[in-house]
Automatic annotation (TrEMBL):
Gene3D superfamilies: NAD(P)-binding Rossmann-like Domain. PANTHER family: UDP-GALACTOPYRANOSE MUTASE. Its cofactor is FAD. It comes from Alicyclobacillus ferrooxydans. Pfam families: GLF (PF03275), NAD_binding_8 (PF13450). GO terms for molecular function: flavin adenine dinucleotide binding; UDP-galactopyranose mutase activity. This is UDP-galactopyranose mutase. The keyword Nuclease does not apply.
Length: 362
């Protein structure tokens, strides 16, 4: 007899399982895959290089609470992520900063001049309604066309004007020369990898783990009081309100006989090739190895759901499913897929900690 059946062993499910188990609850956590960790799962490939199976996962947060919670299960390696964009034969810092602007436009502006330079190029809108307008209002047409339009179309199969403003609002524009991709207080990577962190998180006498298992095939056989579901919410309800759109990814891994393949961890390709970006894992992990492994990411409409597609129409479709939730007192939804939100890892952890507190306060 379990107090909770948790579906999905990624960040949302694992955090909730650990918290509930620590509170004395008996928990069964199940996952369709043959491993824990969800999309953050990492492993050593045949060359002995630590790679992320489902694309690069870079941890960053401003939440002291989230950072200290995860610190119970891992030591950290300090890591500041850097990205370049391949544009017109140049590799330029991304997010756009003063260096990007100087090199792209062939000017030599100091930091104080960058703001006025951009102000002359910005488009003005009475009200921002989509991601195209977000970028045009920040940097104007030239930078929008070269850095954002093509990349967004590849990533989402939608142009920025078709996407909710929140998508591109996530991307900062800097007038200084800070070339870090993130500016969060905590920018770290698990010292021994994500999988080791999840193993420690789920190593609790009150937690049972069942892999390669579809929960629907066992829910009639397993006795439990409440269900926590972190998979796609439309799948849980058997698509009664229609399927929700998701974006997937295909990954091509390559190992090269060199110690370093590219000058930074990630290079974006907004206007060329079918892939969006190339990431070299050794930058992320700090591993020393004579060879190096990279991954190319190809967005696709088919495959495992990775990203809810943030459009106003899809938000309305999710609301129809959200209305179904109220009919179930003992079913709780969490995570990026369970709540149809484009969350970062730390946001998923924070959401799960909040849900745990709500469950305990009843």
């Amino acid at each position: 007899m379990y107090d909770f059946l948790v579906v999905g062993a990624g960040f949302a499910g694992s955090v909730l399982a650990e918290r509930l188990a620590d509170a004395g609850k008996k928990v069964l956590i199940v996952d369709k895959r043959n491993h824990i960790g969800g999309n953050a799962y990492d492993f050593y490939n045949e060359h002995g290089i630590l790679v992320h199976k489902y694309g690069p996962h870079i941890f960053h947060t401003n939440s002291e609470k989230v950072f200290h919670y995860l610190s119970r299960f891992t030591e950290w390696r300090q890591y500041e992520h850097r990205v370049l964009a391949s544009v017109d034969g140049q590799l330029l810092p991304m997010p756009i900063n003063a260096t990007t602007i100087n090199k792209f436009f062939g000017v030599n502006l100091n930091h104080d001049q960058v703001e006025s330079f951009l102000a002359q190029r910005r488009n003005s809108f009475d009200r921002i309604t989509n991601s195209q307008e977000v970028i045009l209002a920040k940097v104007g047409t030239e930078l929008y066309e070269k850095f954002f339009r093509g990349y967004t179309k590849k990533q989402w199969d939608l142009y920025p004007e078709q996407l909710d403003a929140s998508v591109c609002a996530r991307i900062p524009i800097r007038t200084n020369a800070d070339d870090r991709y993130f500016t969060d207080i905590y920018q770290v990577m698990p010292a021994q990898g994500y999988t080791k962190m999840f193993e420690r998180m789920l190593n609790h006498p009150n937690i049972s783990v069942l892999l390669q298992t579809d929960y629907k095939k066992i829910q009639e056989e397993v006795r439990f009081n409440e269900l926590i579901y972190t998979g796609p919410i439309d799948e849980y309800f058997d698509y009664v309100r229609g399927p929700l759109p998701y974006r997937s990814l295909r990954f091509d891994f390559e190992t090269h006989e060199v110690s370093t393949y590219q000058p930074v961890a990630t290079i974006n390709y907004p206007n060329s090739y079918d892939f969006t970006r190339v990431t070299e894992f050794k930058y992320l992990t700090g591993q020393t190895h004579a060879r190096t492994t990279i991954v190319k990411e190809f967005p696709t409409a088919n495959g495992d759901p990775y990203y809810p597609i943030p459009t106003p129409e899809n938000a309305e479709a999710y609301e129809r499913y959200k209305a179904e939730i109220g009919k179930y007192d003992a079913v709780h939804f969490a995570g990026r897929l369970g709540t149809y939100r484009y969350y970062n890892m730390d946001q998923v952890v924070a959401q799960s900690l909040t849900l745990f507190n709500n469950l305990m306060s009843r």
